[in-house]
Design goal:
- There is one protein chain.
- By secondary structure, the protein is of the alpha/beta class.
- Helix content is 35%, strand content 14%.
- The protein contains 13 helices and 15 strands.
- It has helices at 72-82, 95-114, 129-144, 163-172, 189-195, 218-227, 247-250, 275-280, 315-331, 333-350, 378-387, 400-406, 422-439, and strands at residues 60-61, 123-126, 150-154, 175-179, 200-206, 231-235, 254-258, 269-273, 291-293, 300-301, 357-359, 368-373, 390-391, 393-395, 411-415.
- The longest helix has 20 residues, at 95-114.
- The radius of gyration is 22 Å and the shape is globular.
- The chain binds 4'-deoxy-4'-aminopyridoxal-5'-phosphate.
- 4'-deoxy-4'-aminopyridoxal-5'-phosphate binds next to helix 3.
- Residues 128-130, 158, 160-161, 206, 210, 235, 237-238, 258, 398 line the site of 4'-deoxy-4'-aminopyridoxal-5'-phosphate.
Length: 440
């Protein structure tokens, strides 16, 4: 008999509770739940959130879309988990391991409640969005698609939502089609509706673009995908840190995100999938923890999600993500959204006042502003801004096909987070002024 307590098997208390209270609730038309319905502490009002982040100080950190700084609460949870609480999960007969198993599975329930999953058994812990997409490409597309089938992506996808599909398409003899962008840099859903066919088995799109900040009308994209029987995966990396997400109302089939962009640890993330899809998917990797019984004659596998979590998991990653979700909800996603919306508006109003600055993305970009200065390489912008204590990202942002369609090699990108404020925008604008004087 295997000695592991696996999620979803009903063995062990950690696996027996249902969704977090309030996980299934009323949502608005965009699939966002009212913040009050989430479990967790009530939102904090009017506090200086910068003080929650020991990594911020007076630094103007505008690279949150790459990775978010960590609040002290997350750092403390990680230290506690690696310190006095540390033990393995799913194996120990001793109390600390049993407690750690409970904490690990509580994190899974917390994530389920956070994104509106029907049950914690729909939550697969992965290394990040990249691994989540690779898992779906291998275990779902790799099984379901055949030669001649088609996959639909968009022009603005991150490489991690392009390359895994190319790899599996090449192996299967499937094809990839690309949805163009509208003039204001959104995924063109009219074009999507016109180009989709029953040969398309999967659509995979960013919920929020990491370069442009464009927000997808997920519900409409899902309707279009489902109209031909295709499944839809949403890459939620840039959405979960800045808006309330509910997978039921978004009506997607797969949803992925990375913990480190949600103020949690690196090397950890989430794949959510409809339970019937997970049930039908074969394991991703073989090893300990993903099995039911092993013999040299025949091995049987655990039910989801354990089936997809071979080996000792990133235990502390799960606890860190739990703390990050608690933190984000203690501030309130509505408040985070409002902070970022305001700062994007300030930036989009101020930058074009400076000669030769060109903005990308729609007016209502979520938390992210990409721009170029004619005649100045974005790396030079980034270097000069760094001297001013302003950290931005410069480059292709892992979206080379998007750069090609925008007609640039690279952009400069400012992205905001819960700790951002007007002083960051002022410092950015001051720094860009200096860049244009140096190169002018
Ligand atoms: N998708 C988007 C939209 C992203 O912004 C990122 C990270 N830049 C990824 C996918 C990949 O995330 P990770 O590297 O954490 O797996």
């Amino acid at each position: 008999m295997d000695d592991q307590i696996l999620p979803g098997t009903g063995r062990g208390t950690a696996t027996q509770s249902g969704v977090v209270e309030g996980a299934l609730h009323e949502r608005d038309a965009m699939g966002h739940a009212p913040s009050t319905s989430f479990a967790g502490p009530p939102p904090r009002a009017g506090e200086d959130l910068r003080r929650d982040f020991p990594g911020i100080g007076d630094w103007h950190y505008l690279d949150t879309a790459a990775t978010a700084q960590k609040p002290q609460a997350v750092i403390d949870a990680i230290a506690q988990a690696y310190g006095p609480d540390y033990a393995t999960v799913h194996r120990g007969v001793y109390k600390r391991s049993a407690d750690m198993t409970l904490a690990y599975e509580a994190a899974r329930r917390r994530v389920a409640g956070f994104i509106g999953a029907g049950s914690e058994n729909e939550i697969v812990f992965v290394r990040g969005a990249t691994e989540g997409i690779n898992l779906v490409a291998t275990c779902w597309a790799g099984e379901q698609l055949k030669a001649g089938d088609r996959i639909l992506l968009s022009q603005l996808e991150h490489h991690s939502n392009i390359v895994p599909w190319q790899m599996i398409a090449e192996k299967l003899g499937a094809h990839i089609d690309v949805i163009p962008l509208t003039e204001d840099h959104r995924i063109d859903l009219d074009a999507m509706a016109a180009m989709i066919t029953p040969a398309h088995k999967l659509v995979s799109l960013a919920h929020v673009s990491n370069v442009l900040g464009s927000v997808l009308d997920c519900r409409r994209a899902a309707d279009i995908a489902h109209s031909v029987g295709a499944k839809i995966l949403l890459d939620g990396c840039q959405a979960v840190p800045r808006m309330r997400v509910d997978v039921q109302v978004l009506d997607c089939d797969f949803y992925v995100f990375s913990a480190h962009k949600l103020y949690g640890p690196t090397g950890f993330g989430v794949l959510w999938a409809r339970p019937e899809l997970l049930e039908a998917m074969p394991p991703y990797q073989g090893g300990g923890a993903m099995i039911d019984r092993v013999s040299f004659e025949k091995t049987t596998y655990a039910p989801p999600p354990g089936r997809f979590e071979a080996g000792t998991p990133h235990i502390v990653g799960a606890l860190g993500l739990h703390a990050a979700i608690d933190y984000v909800e203690s501030v309130g996603l509505d408040r985070i959204h409002a902070i970022e919306t305001d700062l994007v508006a300030q930036t989009r109003a101020a930058l074009p006042q400076i000669n030769s600055v060109r903005l990308f993305g729609p007016e209502d970009s979520a938390g992210i502003v990409s721009f170029v200065i004619e005649g100045v390489h974005p790396h030079d912008i980034g270097t000069i801004l760094d001297e001013e204590g302003v950290a931005i990202r410069a480059g292709h942002h892992c979206a080379q096909p998007l750069m090609a369609s925008l007609g640039v090699d690279a952009t400069a990108r400012a992205s905001f987070g819960v700790y951002s404020d007007a002083s960051d925008v002022e410092a950015l604008v001051r720094g860009i002024g200096r860049v244009t004087r140096i190169f002018g």
